[in-house]
Amino acid sequence: MNRQIATFSFLHEAHIAKASLDAANIPAFLENEHTINMQWLYSNAIGGVRFSVPAEFEVEALELINSDFSDQVDQEFNSLTKEKPICPSCGSSELVTYTIGKKPAFLVFLLFGFPLFFYKHGFKCKHCSDIFRKQLN
Description:
The protein is α+β, with helices and mostly antiparallel strands. Helix content is 35%, strand content 22%. It folds into 2 domains: 2-65, no CATH class; 70-132, no CATH class.
């Protein structure tokens, strides 16, 4: 018997969770996948993408999909730069990774009905909140 362990508003989130479980050889099943893929605005109305696993894998599956790997992503991103970047405005080295262009892309999608992906990855200073892009070496 399968047990529903999570719901996701967006299909890509469900596929990321499913890939994590597939890597651990845990069978996972998605419901409403195709409906939301065709019309994602219905996601909240029909309860999102339902994610279920066999009952015997429930505990292990919940541990895997609730794991937070964001620190590892930041470490990997920062290890790609040869030198530690500094803020061009205030000179601080306390920076966090930041994606530039998400808000304009979202507005274009709302106004015109199709996405334009012009994201750029950069840094945001913790002290002066300046956002800038540094080329990776």
